Amino acid sequence: MATLEDSFLADLDELSDNEAELDESDGDDAKKDDEDIDMDMADLETLNYDDLDSVSKLQKSQRYLDIMQKVGEALGKASDESEKGTVLEDDPEYKLIVDCNQLSVDIENEIAIVHNFIRDKYRLKFQELESLVNHPIDYARVVKKIGNETDLTLVDLEGLLPSAIIMVVSVTALTTKGSPLPEDVLQKTLEACDRALNLDSARKKVLDFVESKMGSIAPNLSAIVGSAVAAKLMGTAGGLSALAKMPACNVQVLGHKRKNLAGFSSATSQSRVGYLEQTEIFQSTPPALKSRAGRILAAKSTLAARVDATRGDPSGTNGKALREEIRKKIEKWQEPPPARQPKPLPVPDSEPKKRRGGRRLRKMKERYAVTDMRKLANRMAFGTPEESSLGDGLGEGYGMLGQAGSNRLRISSVPSKLKINPTIAKKLKERNYAGGATTSGLTSSLAFTPVQGIELCNPQQALGLGSGTQSTYFSESGTFSKLKKI
Amino acid sequence: MESVLLPTLTKKEEIDRIINNTIDKVLVLRFGRTSDENCLLLDDILEKSARDVSKFATVALVDVDSDQVQVYVNYFDITLFPSTVFFFNAHHMKLDSGTADHTKWVGKFHEKQDFIDVVEVIFRGAMKGKMIVHCPLPPERIPKYQLLYKDV
């Protein structure tokens, strides 16, 4: 678009302020020939960037004035339903609507250009404002309100911005690097703000007009989403046929505002709906189903727009049917799941038992495993009669145990993995300790018996009872005598 | 909870059909009349557990008052009502529950679980190829009755 190109060239002209732009323009210049550079530089210099009118030409253009006049007239007079021609494209009202759509897109671009202009001028005063307030119209309003003021407590921003943003703006203003603008620059900036606000109101007017005519232009689309949203969608898309050509995923995000909440994370609020958010259907769905509802709304409204673009259904019944379908689907999503029926029992022995293995099972099995001693005792030598505990084949056989050359009659020093009763374990420990260096001072290897008097070897020890004097209180392997659970 | 009523059989052909058609499932036939209180209690338990054992058993009721089924009543020697007879693949399964008569189960079950246990034991035994199984219930849960032999 002509005006956009001009604006880009105008941006390139800003050599003095921004070094980044300096590099950009240098890069651009390097691509051109030497002669062209002189010519272009001359052209750029003639563009007086200080003047608003050279940047934003739309409001002065004839086309704009014509359409605005017609819109004003049409809004004033009552619409005549019977004036619809057989072919829509010949209908003057339809032509006006098409023009209005195109114009609304143009106005939006124009607003963007003016926003850039304001931003560049106001950067000297308050650089951070452009990142805090994203929306161009809000920015223009805020700039107008603040003006050349340094102290933001004197400025009342209520109603223009959400309070959180106002707070952030006030705080940032205290530490801003900017300085108040000179008088003429300030004048130009305020003029540009006014221009932006005028453009915005003009756009609103155009959209209102389109909305009022929406019932006759796009009956199916307005049956689903309502005439206001339909007008907005058409306005942003740039016409009914443009809207019909868009895929549904694009329609879903038409008009999506970027809500940059000044430092807050945008990971949680991932709502991908634009103007469709304002439809009655979307508002009335529960929050959990909103994303699905947005998707189905976009899909069905795209279908309706396509029907309308080809004028396939002037009465709007198709749209009503689609709306009913959407409503039914949303209701179905909200149904509770069917109640669970108790399952019948499985057939006995149909599922084989799952035997588990692994280290834990192996460790458990080791405790009851056959020991080496027992293995040797089970094995017998060929040709030689087995020794047995009671002799002559009576009693338990010893097998290979205790044969000459093998030293396996004694208990091996490797701690056995077999499970031993704790009381028996304690007694074994006592017995082993009795010969140790660190025995208790009260143990004695003498025993006093009524029959023999003093005995040097303790017969009770062989029986495993220990001497009567063997104290348990001072025992090495003793435990607490009294345990009480607290 | 849905209460699908158990099929009630009144004709001989129906009984024949159901015995022949139940393949690889235990067939439980209850012989009794709906006016009897014990019978109603037994029917209640049968209905409640019919769905649970549906994968390996079928339950059906036989009305003993109809004349066509008297053949079966005499064949199985059913004198006390309700009586339950078990089949598997058209074989008559016997159940040793400590009573005199092993060919049938006389009386009601104490609980739903008892019935399910009996059916499971019958199924297991039948799958192994046995013709008579031992009842898993403790003796206090087994209804006692006196068998009259030729009215003595």
UniProtKB/TrEMBL annotation, chain A:
Keyword Transport assigned: no
A Pfam family assignment: Prp31_C
PROSITE patterns hit by this protein: NOP (PS51358)
Domain of life: Eukaryota
Compositional bias (Acidic residues): 11-27
GO cellular component, one term: U4/U6 x U5 tri-snRNP complex
Boundaries of every Nop domain copy: 217-335
Pro residues: bias regions: 335-349
Region annotation (Disordered) ranges: 1-36, 330-362
Any GO BP: spliceosomal tri-snRNP complex assembly
Compositionally biased region (Basic residues): 353-362
An MF annotation (GO) of this entry: RNA binding
Keywords associated with the record: mRNA processing, mRNA splicing, Nucleus, Ribonucleoprotein, RNA-binding, Spliceosome
Location relative to the cell: Nucleus
UniProt similarity note: Belongs to the PRP31 family.
Protein name listed in UniProt: Nop domain-containing protein
Species: Brassica carinata (Ethiopian mustard)
UniProtKB/TrEMBL annotation, chain B:
Keyword Cell cycle appears in the UniProt entry: yes
Subcellular localization(s) per the UniProt record: Nucleus
Entry keyword annotation includes Kinase: no
GO biological process assignments: mRNA splicing, via spliceosome
InterPro entries linked: Dim1 (IPR004123), Thioredoxin-like_sf (IPR036249)
Transmembrane feature ranges: none
Keywords assigned: Cell cycle, mRNA processing, mRNA splicing, Nucleus
A Pfam family annotated for this UniProt entry: DIM1
GO cellular component: spliceosomal complex; U4/U6 x U5 tri-snRNP complex; U5 snRNP
Family classification: Belongs to the DIM1 family.
SUBUNIT field: Homodimer. Interacts with the U5-102 kDa protein subunit of the spliceosome.
Entry function: Essential role in pre-mRNA splicing. Required in cell cycle progression for S/G(2) transition.
Record protein name field: Thioredoxin-like protein 4B
Organism this protein belongs to: Brassica carinata (Ethiopian mustard)
